[in-house]
Amino acid sequence: MGDRAQVQFLFRTEEQYREIWFYTHWEGYKLQETVTNAIRRGKPRWRDDEYLARIIFSEMIQGHVLDETGYGIGVYKHADLQYPVIIVDCVRQAVSFDDGYRWELFCNV
């Protein structure tokens, strides 16, 4: 059992979109709030995808940096998530959900 959720982080290299996935096993219920805080803190880094990615993941693992489990970085979407994926698109400087809900309704970043 768990409370699984993910962030899909999109960025561009050359002419291709690339993606990495940030995963939480136990704190999916608060991932939306966590990403909101990270985006607010990292807003000046929208065009610097490496820094923004680190800011978001750091916000996720705050207080759990040395834990062996609970969080991860990967290259694919998990099949057993309990929440919509939060999509952070560095090219468009936009945040959305993979189920069609608009981020603006939840987060004024």
Characterization of the model:
- With 109 residues, this protein is of the alpha+beta class.
- The chain has one domain (5-105).
- 23% of the residues lie in helices and 28% in strands.
- The chain is built from two helices and five strands, in the order ββααβββ.
- A hairpin with a 2-residue loop joins strand 1 (5-13) and strand 2 (16-24).
- The radius of gyration is 13 Å and the shape is globular.
- 21% of the residues are buried.
Keywords:
five-stranded mixed β-sheet, 109 residues, globular, 23% helix, alpha+beta, single chain
How is this structure best summarized?
The protein has helices at 31-42, 49-61, and strands at 5-13, 16-24, 71-74, 86-89, 94-97. The chain is an alpha+beta fold and 109 residues long. The chain is globular, with a radius of gyration of 13 Å.
Q: Biggest sheet: strands side by side, in what order?
A: 3-2-1-4-5
Structural class: alpha+beta
Q: Regions with pLDDT < 50 over 5+ consecutive residues?
A: none
Task: Look at the structure and give the mean pLDDT.
Answer: 91
Protein topology:
Layout: E1 5-13, E2 16-24, H1 31-42, H2 49-61, E3 71-74, E4 86-89, E5 94-97
Helix pairs in contact: 1-2
